[in-house]
Amino acid sequence: MKPQALRRRALIGLAAAGILYGPAASWSAPETAYPAKPVTIIVPFPAGGGTDVIFRSVQQRLQTALGVSVIIDNRSGAGGTVGTGFGAKANPDGYTLVAATTSTIASADAVYPKLPYDPVKDLVPIGTIGTTPFVLVVTPSLAARDVKGLVDYAKAHPQALNYGSIGNGSLSHLAGELFKQRTGIEMTHVPYRGAAPAQADLMAGQIQALFDNPPSLLAQVRGGRMRALAISEPLAGFEGLPTFEQAGIKGFRPQLWYGLMAPAATPQPVVQRLRAALDAAMRDAALRADMQSKGVTPWTVPPDAFQAQIRSDIQLWGGIARSVNAKAE
Q1: Which percentage of the chain shows pLDDT scores above 90?
Q2: Based on the domain organization, do 111 and 54 belong to the same domain?
Q3: What's the CA gap between 312 and 306, in Å, rounded?
Q4: Residue 141 sits in the same domain as residue 120
Q5: What pLDDT, on a 0 to 100 scale, did the predictor assign at position 28?
Q6: Are residues 155 and 125 in the same domain?
Q7: Are residues 103 and 255 in contact, defined by beta-carbon separation less than 8 angstroms?
Q8: What is the arithmetic mean of pLDDT over 323-329?
Q9: 2, 26, 146, 275 - which has most CB atoms within 10 Å?
Q10: E strands within 63-160?
């Protein structure tokens, strides 16, 4: 048989065996390795705010670990729920991620009647970044010098104390309600539109107490314009300040956490790649020091532990919000 005939016969045999003309996929170009283009993180709060500042610190190290640009896209509105909803409904290809916080994931469902996303079903955890504790501060004119003094005063004067918050349904509000439940005292809630006016009225004596995060309080406390009584966990800048546990309030550790999430249908290999990159970023000593200087304690746990924290906090903060019918303005 001639060589050409032998070659033709061999090709026919290979085709019949599915080797030469196998599945169509064998002829297509291999899938591009992830990531192949810039990754966007939706930060659902304004530029310059606490969440934005923290994620911009992580951004630089994350893009080094991924090998592509990481873009911060600020989409604020409705306490962070607008941007979170946009990110939750984005294409689940790993190129749009969501900067998540306790307020947008754990308490939002209870305080916003028409939340545009389901915190558990529409988003998948990638990993945590850090936590910020809450500090209880009081006006300097108040006689109480510690938590016990405040509780004793409140019980002796049940209608005398007002506590401020940065808004109805905020963690600042819910922390105050949880404190009331744990101590059995009465305080009247006064909501403000943000931290600045609440702090101004505290320093003026219009309200007597406030729960807020450390970065915005430190200068005022050091200047004697407000008095710090306790903090959720030890933190640089507040050395010597007792924790609520040390002050006798057992099981009271309100905190705001930051984490990274993706749309729920994001492929698992992509989630794992993102998780590895986040781990690498969070090991950077300079990043950790920078976060601590901003009042944030680095906190890294795997996705399953992050999911467990989310479910626990939804039960805690959602339960408190519903018990006092807290609704966002």
Answers
A1: 74
A2: yes
A3: 10
A4: no
A5: 35
A6: no
A7: no
A8: 86
A9: 275
A10: 70-74, 96-101, 123-133, 135-138
